[in-house]
Specification:
single chain; 3 helices; 4-stranded parallel β-sheet; globular; alpha/beta; about 100 residues; Rossmann fold
Length: about 100
């Protein structure tokens, strides 16, 4: 399960939820470039949905976390996970959308 926070949020938004989900499956939370504890220099690219999607895919590939993924998107990141599922449908088993932007 790959969990993405809303705009301006960090992985800490999920600190109470993640341990409970982790009892059932592997979970990954992360901070998008320029947020939380991520490297600020990584956020120098235009912050488009496509850029965020590309960075997430690179992260998953570099950490060798195999698909299929259940993507969790909250608020603005709902756009990112839907785009990921649209572009890579064979890598996505499902989505959980939490109070997403539409």
């Amino acid at each position: 399960m790959v969990i993405d926070s809303g705009q301006g949020g960090t992985h800490l938004d999920w600190q109470l939820v993640q341990p409970e989900i982790a009892k059932l499956t592997q979970t990954v939370t992360y901070d998008r470039a320029g947020y939380g504890w991520s490297d600020l220099s990584l956020g120098q690219e235009a912050r488009t949905a496509q850029q965020c999607l590309d960075e997430l895919r690179q992260l998953l590939q570099k950490t060798e976390i195999p698909p299929p993924y259940i993507l969790v998107g909250m608020s603005l990141s709902g756009l990112f996970v839907r785009l990921f599922a649209y572009q890579y449908p064979k890598e996505v088993a499902g989505m959980v959308l939490v109070d997403v932007t539409h």
